[in-house]
User: Fold this.
Amino acid sequence: MFNDLSSPAALMATRRSGKPRDMAAPGPTPEQMTRILNAATRVPDHGKLAPWRFVVVPADRREALAALLERAYRAERPDPGKVELEAVRQFAMQAPALVVALSAPAHASHIPIWEQELSAGAACMNLLVATHAEGLVGGWLTGWAAYSDIVRDAFGVPGERIAGFIFIGTPTRELDERPRPDREKVISEWQP
Ligand SMILES: Cc1cc2nc3c(=O)[nH]c(=O)nc-3n(C[C@H](O)[C@H](O)[C@H](O)COP(=O)(O)O)c2cc1C
Assistant:
């Protein structure tokens, strides 16, 4: 890794995503994966509803994921081209580890769905931060597959949504630093 992790502040200041297609082994050890997922569940959650959950896709089930994604893709786009199908397969097979994060709101609760979805986003973010803290890199992707009912039904139930496919691994090249927003545009002092 290329980051200075010597303090919690440095950890937060240096975290960034990697491209899953550029991730290689090693992925997280079982102990690291446990710590990463534990951190993901330690998030603000109004009403203690745990309106999210995580489904780990083990390495030996990536082929099954690729088959699922191809079936889902064909259902939406009959007669796909070879290049498209290769991209679908590449998505399923990339990076050493994959966690599918689900937003699983309690629809009957008085807690607004918006707040429950915010909690799911926080859980995904904690997962990424914990990944960085382990000296690994994460990448949060959605894409068409996150919005496919066929894919969602393979991981969750109606009413749940795929918040993201979070890939974890070791970067094979220096991570790009993407432009960050201007402070003045996104941070201000309240003027009553
Ligand atoms: C909900 C969500 C979905 C995303 N889906 C994609 C995606 O499908 N493809 C992509 O290239 N980036 C996607 N991104 C953006 C990547 O995660 C991006 O690499 C990230 O925002 C980089 O910021 P960071 O370095 O601060 O982590 C998504 C981000 C979020 C929050």
Q: What stands out?
A: The two ends are 45 Å apart (CA to CA). The domain at 17-173 is CATH 3.40.109.10 (NADH Oxidase). Residues 16-17, 139-143, 164, 178 surround flavin mononucleotide (CB under 6 Å). The chain has a mean pLDDT of 96.
